[in-house]
Amino acid sequence: MSGVDEAVPTEDGARLWATRAGAGTPVVCCHGGPGLWDALGDVAGLLADLATVHRWDQRGCGRSQRCGPYSVARSVADLDAVRRHFGLHRMALLGHSYGAGLALQYALAHPEHVSKLVYVSGNGIDSRDTWRSAYRRNLRANLGTHLARWETLGRRRRTEAEEREWCVLQFSADYSDRERALEQAEAAATPWFGVNHECNATINAEVDRTSGTPELRAACERLHVPVLIVHGAEDIRPDWALDSLEQALPRVSRTVLNGAGHLPWVEEPNGFRSAVGDFLAGLSA
C-alpha cells in the first residue's frame, strides 16, 4: 500500500524516505536487513482500516540518502526523527527480522514514546551463535537445486543483475510454500534498490557484540511496553531463539502462524491481520 513520499530530515543532515497510509492507531514499521529497504507495503495494506501505518527506509538503504554512519544507536535516532516528523508523541512499533530488534532497541531507549511493540520474525536476545548454525542448515536445505548457483554467486564479485539474482535465491528460502518461493522472492525484490553491504556488515558486527549480554536481558526485564511476538512456524530461523526474549519481557504474548515462513503476512495474511489487529486494538495482552 502506498502513500505520499516524504523526506525526513535527521539532526546530522541525512534525508530519509518515509510514507504513511491508512487511518487509526499510529504504527511505525521497521524493515529488515540491515542494508535492505522497506518492503512492508502489504503489511500496511492489511492494517489500513485499523491503523495509520508509517514506513521508512533506514539510513543508507532504499530510497533514503546513502550515507553513514551506520550503527544501532544511529538507527534509533533516525527512527526518533521519523516519529517527530510525523508529529507522533506515542506510536506502536512493528519491526520485521532485523527491524524487530531495532524496534526493541528503540522501545528500550524511549519507552515513553512506544504504546505497543509487534516483534515479527526476530531472533531474540541470546547470542546469535546459539541459532546461526541451525539457520544455515535450514537455508541450504530450502535452496535445494538452487544451492550450487547461490554458492557460486556468493563466492565472486557480482554484477548488479547477479546481485539481484543472488538475493532472490536467498530470499526464496524464507517461504514455506516451496513451489511458489521463487515467485514470492521475485516480488520481494521488486522494485530493486540494491543491498548496502557496508551497512549490513557494520550493524551485524555490532549486533553480534551486544546480543546475549546480561545488560540486554536486564533492560528487557525492565520494559513494561506490551509486546506481541509473531513468528512463522516454518521460518528457517528457529523459533526457540525467541524463548529468551519471551522469558525476559514482563508484558508479552506470542503467536506462531502455521504454514508461514519468515514473512508471515505473505503466506498467512488472515492470521497475521487477526493477531496484529487484535493486539493493536487491545484485545490481547
UniProtKB/TrEMBL annotation:
<feature type="domain" description="AB hydrolase-1">
    <location>
        <begin position="26"/>
        <end position="269"/>
    </location>
</feature>
<dbReference type="GO" id="GO:0016787">
    <property type="term" value="F:hydrolase activity"/>
</dbReference>
<dbReference type="Pfam" id="PF00561">
    <property type="entry name" value="Abhydrolase_1"/>
</dbReference>
<protein>
    <submittedName>
        <fullName>Alpha/beta hydrolase</fullName>
    </submittedName>
</protein>
<dbReference type="InterPro" id="IPR000073">
    <property type="entry name" value="AB_hydrolase_1"/>
</dbReference>
<dbReference type="InterPro" id="IPR002410">
    <property type="entry name" value="Peptidase_S33"/>
</dbReference>
<comment type="similarity">
    <text>Belongs to the peptidase S33 family.</text>
</comment>
<dbReference type="InterPro" id="IPR050266">
    <property type="entry name" value="AB_hydrolase_sf"/>
</dbReference>
<keyword id="KW-0378">Hydrolase</keyword>
<dbReference type="InterPro" id="IPR029058">
    <property type="entry name" value="AB_hydrolase_fold"/>
</dbReference>
